[in-house]
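pls design
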């Protein structure tokens, strides 16, 4: 794969496209997309790197570039957020307008320069609330507003995830999910049917979908596919292997957290 010289990368990283602010004159966009990525302690460094690299490569993909340009307006806005506990959300790359290969590659380059980090507990609900605030504060006119949330565990901090989902989806925002299932469930918070949890408890809104990652070698490919679907506005579900009639308790993470508090210090 072609890599830019480091000095040129540094130049691109500071050549920031106009960011979205209330002072701007109501830009027209096909999509306003918040990418909200789990960095809780359950995500090991290898998973974090693969996840970050997957999003970087997605925005370097010619397929994604073409999908953006084929939109009705040919431009989107995207921001990248890392989250963990109820009070831990960080904007890694702020709102950036992407309208073709150059701006998409610049977004990817800026993201690739940022160091990864690890948090503590897992508050999907707080991540959704934070992402929804970013969409409101952007004050842009977009055909679609989407939150793309990824993680490897259930909500165990903050308010109930279904309360956040219902409120945000009810406002017209679509919530899509990327459940990371590349490890065998071992810890208290792990769930072997995390895809079902995301389906029943996390995603919501018009055209919402979730795309599980079950193989570590599939990270980049599936993240690119997910971004393509979000940029293109494809509503139809892709076939997923989901056991029929299987459901999940959406408060399973909160209940386990309560049990941990009674038994001793929580691990995450």
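designed seq:
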């Amino acid at each position: 794969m072609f890599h830019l010289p480091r000095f040129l990368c540094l130049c691109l990283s500071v050549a920031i496209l106009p960011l979205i602010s209330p002072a701007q004159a109501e830009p027209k966009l096909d999509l306003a997309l918040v990418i909200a990525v789990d960095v809780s302690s359950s995500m090991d460094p290898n998973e974090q790197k693969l996840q970050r690299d997957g999003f970087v490569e997605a925005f370097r993909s010619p397929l994604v570039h073409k999908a953006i340009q084929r939109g009705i307006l040919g431009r989107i806005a995207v921001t990248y957020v890392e989250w963990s506990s109820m009070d831990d959300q960080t904007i890694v790359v702020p709102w950036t307008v992407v309208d073709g290969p150059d701006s998409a590659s610049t977004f990817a380059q800026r993201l690739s320069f940022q160091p990864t980090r690890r948090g503590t507990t897992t508050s999907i609900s707080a991540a959704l609330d934070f992402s929804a605030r970013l969409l409101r504060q952007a004050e842009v006119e977009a055909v679609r507003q989407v939150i793309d949330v990824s993680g490897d565990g259930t909500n165990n901090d903050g308010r109930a995830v279904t309360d956040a989902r219902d409120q945000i989806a009810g406002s017209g925002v679509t919530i899509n999910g990327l459940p990371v299932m590349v490890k065998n469930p071992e810890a208290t918070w792990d769930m072997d049917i995390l895809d079902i949890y995301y389906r029943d408890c996390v995603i919501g809104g018009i055209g919402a979908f979730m795309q599980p990652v079950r193989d570590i070698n599939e990270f980049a490919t599936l993240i690119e596919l997910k971004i393509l679907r979000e940029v293109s506005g494809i509503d139809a579900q892709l076939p997923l292997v989901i056991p029929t009639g299987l459901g999940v308790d959406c408060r399973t993470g909160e209940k386990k957290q309560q049990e941990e508090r009674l038994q001793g210090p929580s691990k995450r």
